[in-house]
Amino acid sequence: MTAVYNDLLFEISRPGRKGYSLPESSVEKTALTDVLPEHLIREEAAELPELSELQVMRHYTGLSNKNFGIETGFYPLGSCTMKYNPKVNEDIARYSGFAQIHPFQPAKTAQGALELMYRLEENLKEVTGMDAISLQPAAGAQGEWAGLLIFKAYHEANGEGEQRRKILVPDSAHGTNPASAVVAGYDVVEIKSNEQGRVGIDALKAAVGPDTAGLMLTNPNTLGLFEVDIVEIAEIVHEAGGLLYYDGANANAILGKSTPGEMGFDVVHLNLHKSFSTPHGGGGPGSGPIGVKDYLKAFMPSPRIEKEGDTYRVTTDHPQSIGRVKGYFGNFGVNVRAYAYIRSMGAEGLQQVSEDAVLHANYLKARLEPYYDTPYSSHCKHEFVLSGVRQKKLGVRTLDIAKRLLDYGFYAPTVYFPLIVEECLMIEPTETEAKEQLDAFADAMIEIAEDAEKNPDTVTGAPFTKAVKRLDEVTAARKPVVTYQRS
Ligand SMILES: *Cc1c(COP(=O)(O)O)cnc(C)c1O
Predict the structure, then answer these.
(1) What is the residue with the minimal CA distance to atom 15 of ligand 1?
(2) Architecture of the domain made up of 87-345
(3) Nearest CA residue ID for atom 3, ligand 1
(4) Where does the source fall among the domains of life (predicted)?
(5) Cβ(333)–Cβ(341) under 8 Å?
(6) Residue 426 DSSP one-character state
(7) Nearest C-alpha to atom 12 of ligand 1 is from which residue?
(8) pTM greater than 0.85 (yes/no)
């Protein structure tokens, strides 16, 4: 075994060691004072590390091996859709015709890029059942915010902007939903879930009124359950004069099976960096396109891409638009990947995605149900929640189970979310895993449940095999040490 921590480059530095060897330069050196004002010139060298090329290679390769990603192992992080994304889409996004163009190029020299965006919008209309798409928003949360600005513009256009100030959000919602509503200037009203983990119709009826701007919902919801009353929910909100927002971050549960449009939603966002072939998790570029029904088209972000004959144009004359929400055309590279993915999968392939995602989640759920409490026992969609209350009574917490999974080489599921489930574990296996992989994970979870009874120390002391054990997470978040102090 190598040392647990890689030494820092500064620590392995030795004076005079070099990573290159060049012949003496025959060009006469320019005096620094000829090119820089005297007061800007260093008196001492910068103390940069001095290393051989091999040392640098080993250092960075070592760091990269400490990273865990979908290409290293199973990553069942609920609500995050950590699935494998085909590399061919990465390759296509790097084609020079896509990667080397400039957003300020005249439209007539970028017809291919505009056509790709136009076609992607057409495809996403079908996926969502909406009438218009904007590719501008760069993330799910930004899509939510832009969508809520459209709510606002719509109510203002109807002379009800002042009056409709409340956004209803179920207590199982993703945290970005209430946050986006607040950023968009709304008051948030929480709707309690019923015993089946779904929106309570009575609670909803009690909450809607002339001050309702709309409801934010995801279906399947964050518990992985399909809102079977969605048509009635939509009617209740619409009758009260509100609009419905669909959080489509995890669309892989319904692709080709149903659309938010059919369910009665007015505005939707998708996370192309979850369901449509862009890797995510490192805060890297994302894309959260929004879709709207016809009557909201006028408020969509500007500029837009329009087709006239065989020519694609960028249009900016949209007086009712909420305006620009992101520079240029959004994250174009992410949109290229999504388009390549949709075209290579085809309609049938996308349907298969949702069938496999749902099958995998139900299979895992069925295997784990005898060992963990399942607060909602009905069939799930692409993800499901377990509760660790049975293990908690034995002194083993959900956090311990999550840490123990790391020893088996798995990334831990989402824990303690949604908040309405005690000791929650939220598991999303995704459509891209093989059965043996699902079984290996189930076997580990079962062994952990058995250890919680017989050898709780092996769970509460975990992880045993990792470079870093348990961190003081509060101190790490509140007082992070992010600079190197030379000892
Ligand atoms: C990930 C996610 C979001 C937020 O998407 P970002 O791109 O991270 O802003 C919103 N809702 C749900 C259900 C999600 O899973």
Answers:
(1) 79
(2) 3-Layer(aba) Sandwich (3.40)
(3) 140
(4) Bacteria
(5) no
(6) E
(7) 249
(8) yes
